[in-house]
Task: inverse folding
């Protein structure tokens, strides 16, 4: 709580030129509205922050994941709410380095990751391994940022935001692509905490909340709208439950379904044909399993 309060005070009292939530929100606007990024990959380079990307993804999805006001200053451009958890294993590195669509990368780490705590809990035989792993992780963090910025070789000249690759005739010789190279010039942001403790975690949570609010307001999105995304499908869920109940009743009465039972009745809920057909197969399968379970329990 003390860390969150510290970030709250910083957000309210600090000039926008040095205000971290404001600067990060403006970075998001630049990457999305002007560079065409469709979201960002948040990668924690310390296991302590492994749950942070999921928190950010939920926060931005529920706050920014709606249409902007019709008079938005960015016109048809919308506020991106896609945040991907980069994980601890670098599973998205190849896409981030060489992908044809550029995504903004956000790297989260701490200078003091409390490795001394792990050393204190470990035996003397494991002290060197713990320290060495921490050194490797720190170097990997900055290597990741430098690879995104500067690259490691020359790739064929092409716009990284191009939706479709250039087509060539069958008679022309295929171009050779260096799969071990990256062209760089890909946006990234580093969030570096001085120490990985409860105070820093509170700061990160409050920073993410203020950043998301500012970003939403800049895109003319109401960040305080009460509806939850899943509520938009609640009416369809109720309709499908009603349709499923009708199918169960039909199976119990007639012993099965025929092709006519997969179509929608005039007095039933409005369900599209493909969903209704799959739902009929599901109802048959589940009805048979329930009978099997009931008979087996006797």
Result:
């Amino acid at each position: 709580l003390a860390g969150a309060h510290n970030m709250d005070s910083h957000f309210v009292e600090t000039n926008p030129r040095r205000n971290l939530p404001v600067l990060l929100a403006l970075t998001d606007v630049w990457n999305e509205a002007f560079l065409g990024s469709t979201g960002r990959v948040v990668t924690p380079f310390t296991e302590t922050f492994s749950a942070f990307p999921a928190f950010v993804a939920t926060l931005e999805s529920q706050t920014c994941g709606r249409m902007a006001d019709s008079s938005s200053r960015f016109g048809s451009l919308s506020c991106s709410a896609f945040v991907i958890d980069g994980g601890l294993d670098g599973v998205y590195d190849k896409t981030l380095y060489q992908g044809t669509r550029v995504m903004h990368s956000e790297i989260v780490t701490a200078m003091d990751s409390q490795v001394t705590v792990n050393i204190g809990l470990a035996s003397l035989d494991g002290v060197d391994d713990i320290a060495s792993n921490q050194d490797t992780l720190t170097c990997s963090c900055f290597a990741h940022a430098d690879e995104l910025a500067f690259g490691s070789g020359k790739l064929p000249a092409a716009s990284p935001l191009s939706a479709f690759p250039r087509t060539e005739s069958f008679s022309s010789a295929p171009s050779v692509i260096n799969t071990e190279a990256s062209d760089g010039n890909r946006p990234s942001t580093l969030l570096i905490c001085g120490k990985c403790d409860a105070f820093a975690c509170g700061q990160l949570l409050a920073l993410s909340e203020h950043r998301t609010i500012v970003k939403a307001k800049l895109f003319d999105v109401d960040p305080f709208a009460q509806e939850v995304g899943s509520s938009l499908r609640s009416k369809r869920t109720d309709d499908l439950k009603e349709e499923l109940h009708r199918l169960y009743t039909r199976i119990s009465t007639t012993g099965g379904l025929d092709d006519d039972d997969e179509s929608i009745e005039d007095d039933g809920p409005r369900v599209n044909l493909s969903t209704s057909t799959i739902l009929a197969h599901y109802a048959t399968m589940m009805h048979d399993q329930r009978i099997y379970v009931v008979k087996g329990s006797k």
Notes: Residues 157-174, 292-298 have pLDDT under 50 and may be disordered.
